[in-house]
Amino acid sequence: RLHATDVTSSSFRLVWPQLLSQDSGFYSLEYGPGGDPAARSTLQVPGAQSSLVLSQLAPGTTYEVALIPESNVHYFPPQRTRVTTLPEEISPVQVLISDSGPRSFQVSWAPVLDSVASYQVLYGPLPGNSAKLLQVDGSHNSTLVQHLAPNTTYLVTVTAIYRSGKEKSLSAKACTLEGERGQ
Predict the structure, then answer these.
(1) Residue 19 domain-assigned (yes or no)
(2) What is the C-alpha end-to-end distance of the chain, expressed in Å?
(3) 117-129 confidence digits (pLDDT tens)
(4) For an engineered disulfide with 100, which of 5, 23, 87, 105 has Cβ 3.0 to 4.6 Å away?
């Protein structure tokens, strides 16, 4: 029976029983998002093959798949299945500011995902247009922002740069404490 394994947000592997051989025919594989015949794709698969990875799919989408054995020796009915890709994981979902001092604060974010190559932390005083940029490795989930002005509100934007090239940003406001008088 035709079924899917290794389902991710953008791909899955189809596996089916060996019905044909290299000499007895080939398979026509039709697939596409359910209910949208215009978006269907068709592939020809050699008869000796019994699995195939479909990639570059949309996240969180149900695909209808039909495997049609094309043989001039035997008739095999088409096999059908439906596969739903996983929803795309996104980061950052939250940005936290902590350990505020007059000249620094800690920025942390969650979740940390394998699909993120790096983070960019952009920060600047409000109002104003003098933002600075920090690059942070994708395996880290926090950084210390330093050399700030006391008693100032900053806009902090954390951008996840995915390995796929996509980007996702989230912003938070941070306030530094009053100056070092009397400390």
Answers:
(1) yes
(2) 74
(3) 999 999 999 988 7
(4) 105
Task: Say if CB 152 and CB 175 are below 8 A apart.
Answer: yes
Q: What mean pLDDT value characterizes the chain? A: 90
What is the phi/psi pair of residue 50, to 5°? -135, 15
Give pairs for 98-102: CB < 8 Å, separation 24+: 100/174, 100/175, 100/176, 100/177, 101/176, 101/177, 102/148, 102/150, 102/151, 102/176, 102/177, 102/178, 102/179, 102/180
The parent domain of residue 25 ranges over: 3-84
Query: Is 68 inside any structural domain?
Result: yes
Measured between alpha carbons, how far is 159 from 118 in angstroms, rounded to an integer? 8
- Counting every residue written for the chain, the total comes to 183
Task: Specify if 162 maps to a domain.
Answer: yes
Mean pLDDT lowest among 59-63, 100-104, 106-110? 59-63
Q: What is the spatial distance between Cα 58 and Cα 14, in angstroms, rounded to a whole number? A: 16
pTM of the model: 0.57
Reduced 3-state DSSP string for 142-162: EEEECCCCCCCEEEEEEEEEE
Residue 149 is part of a domain; what is its CATH number?
A: 2.60.40.10
